[in-house]
Amino acid sequence: MESKQHKAEAGGSENNVRLCQPGGTDVAGLWKCVKDDAAVVAAAEPQLRSLLEDVVIGQPCLGAALGVRLARKLAREDMTRGELAPLLAGIFQGEDHLVASAARDLRAIVERDPACDSPLQPLLFFKGFMAISTYRVSHYLWTHGRKELALYFQSLASEVFAVDIHPAARIGCGILLDHATSFVVGETAIIEDNVSILHEVTLGGSGKQTGDRHPIVRSGVLLGAGAKILGRVEIGEGAKVGAGSVVLMDVAPHTTVAGVPAQVVGVSREDAPALEMDQRLGCRSGESRD
């Protein structure tokens, strides 16, 4: 079953989407790792001690830390840190599934990004993680009837992180949003679990006024930098979209596409390209390109 973070929808292939499936990360164990790393860094870098004590060392749990970190990044005259921190921490600490989703995102970053040494780093410094965490708050608010506040957080994420995700979009867990700048996701888009996405990717509409008009991205997909996927197309499980491609048609599972417009160039080398993060184009051994 889906996490309660996501509402079931009738009709079309989205009936079978996999969003935040069971088998997640040990949140308590990950939080201990974050706190241990924070203590080491605080001792080595005195200039970061105040940040670390506020966001990690002085917090009782990952949910509280997420609330404080986002409040520090998003505060402004419209809504001060004093207003944001209790609102965000209250949402995270009151909704275990949101913290579990964030923990799976942190684990995905550590496992897939060779530039990341520990889960502490994305919590403090990686705007892709902070942007997807802000989306999770806005989606929660959207699905609980607080649409104006949800849109406010969408606007903040766009301004602060240069990431624009509509709060009605449905996004699973284990998401690596690498670099993140100029990532855009439309209202009816769906991204399943364990997807990796590079910067400047657009999951855009077809120009229809209403209805399902944004892509469905299945589990295990890797979307290369600058890829544009437009309309209600489906990127099949384990597919790979090359950097700079424009996708206007469905992509079959475990297929690699590239170009403008995107064309099939082979069969994905990996069962789940998102986990391997190999952006080279090519075929499995013994497979020829069309």
Structure summary:
By secondary structure, the protein is an alpha/beta fold. It has 2 domains: 144 residues, Orthogonal Bundle (serine acetyltransferase, domain 1), CATH 1.10.3130.10; 109 residues, Hexapeptide repeat proteins (UDP N-Acetylglucosamine Acyltransferase, domain 1), CATH 2.160.10.10. The chain contains 9 helices and 15 strands.
Summarize the topology.
Elements lengths: L26 H18 L4 H9 L4 H13 L6 H14 L1 H17 L7 H6 L1 H17 L3 H15 L1 E3 L4 E2 L4 E2 L5 E3 L4 E2 L4 E2 L4 E3 L11 E2 L4 E2 L4 E3 L3 E2 L4 E2 L4 E2 L7 E4 L4 E5 L5 H4 L14
Parallel strand pairs: 1-4, 2-5, 3-6, 4-7, 5-8, 6-9, 7-10, 8-11, 9-12, 10-13, 12-14
Antiparallel strand pairs: 14-15
Helix pairs in contact: 1-2, 3-4, 4-5, 5-7, 7-8
Report on this structure:
The relative contact order is 0.10. The chain has 290 residues and is an alpha/beta fold. 39% of the residues lie in helices and 13% in strands. It has a six-stranded mixed beta sheet with strand order 3-6-9-12-14-15. Strands 1-4-7-10-13 form a five-stranded parallel beta sheet. A four-stranded parallel beta sheet has the order 2-5-8-11, with no helix packed on it. β14 (255-258) and β15 form a beta hairpin. It has helices at 27-44, 49-57, 62-74, 81-94, 96-112, 120-125, 127-143, 147-161, 273-276, and strands at 163-165, 170-171, 176-177, 183-185, 190-191, 196-197, 202-204, 216-217, 222-223, 228-230, 234-235, 240-241, 246-247, 255-258, 263-267.
Can you count the beta strands?
Answer: 15
Distance between the termini: 38 Å
Low-confidence stretches: 1-12
Order of adjacent strands in the largest pleated sheet: 3-6-9-12-14-15
**Superfamily (CATH H level) name of the largest domain:** serine acetyltransferase, domain 1
Mean pLDDT: 91
Largest sheet, described in full?
6 strands, mixed
By DSSP (H or I, 4+ residues per run), the number of helices equals 9
Total domain units: 2
Element-level helix/strand string: HHHHHHHHEEEEEEEEEEEEEEEH
Annotated CATH topology of the largest domain: serine acetyltransferase, domain 1
Beta-strand percentage? 5-15%
Helix content: 25-40%
Taking Cα atoms only, what radius of gyration do you get, to the nearest Å? 19 Å
CATH class label of the largest domain? Mainly Alpha
Structural class by sheet pairing and helices: alpha/beta
Shape: globular
The name of the CATH architecture of the largest domain is Orthogonal Bundle
